[in-house]
Amino acid sequence: MTAPQRLTDRKREAIIQAAIAEFRTNGFDITSMDKIAATAGVSKRTVYNHFPSKEELFAEILNQLWDRVLAEQETPYSPDQPLREQLKRILSVKLATMGDDNFLDLARVAIAAAIHSPERAQSMVARMGEREEGLTVWIRAAQADGRLKVVAPDFAAQQLQGMLKSFAFWPQISMGQPSLSPAMQRTVVDSALDMFLACYRL
């Protein structure tokens, strides 16, 4: 890679980091491209060279966050291991992600932006949903192996994640509650697994 490309990459990363800081502090609507440029130490033109609009910049941040979450959750199904142990690893990573301050702050920004503009929300969700979520893939594989009942894998995955989010995401997002302690995380995971496996394990 040549020096100019490296400089371009550094500027792009600086813009993204500045945007994250501004969105977290001020929210989507108040944050301006001018302020992002100033925080990043680049010209406004440079920001627009990388991102045609504030919506595009915010969507890129969400995409990067989503990619990181998916990468952390990529636990391939194993026919030789107990279902509970495999699911416990997947759900424990999910809870750790939900407890990340950066993740929660950006989720708040995204939800607020979505409430004010449903069209913007649909666009963001469409971009983020291009890759299938790891838990859905895992459930489909377990069904194909004859170890889980055959229901829509995305429905079962959403159901299981909903049990986690009711304790470890929505109270923190909507009511400012603290992230779960490690002991409470274990309790939530074990309880969710008890209900999920009682319903779907063959």
Automatic annotation (TrEMBL):
Name of the protein in question:
TetR/AcrR family transcriptional regulator
**Entry-linked PANTHER family:** HTH-TYPE TRANSCRIPTIONAL REGULATOR RUTR, TRANSCRIPTIONAL REGULATOR TETR FAMILY
Q: Which organism is this protein's natural source?
A: Pseudomonas azerbaijanoccidentalis
Which residues does UniProt assign to DNA binding? 32-51
Residues forming the HTH tetR-type domain are 9-69
Please indicate which superkingdom the organism of origin belongs to. Answer: Bacteria
**UniProt keyword terms in alphabetical order:** DNA-binding
InterPro entries on file: DNA-bd_HTH_TetR-type_CS (IPR023772), HTH-type_TetR-like_transc_reg (IPR050109), HTH_TetR (IPR001647), TetR_C_Proteobacteria (IPR039536)
Q: Name one Pfam family in it.
A: TetR_N
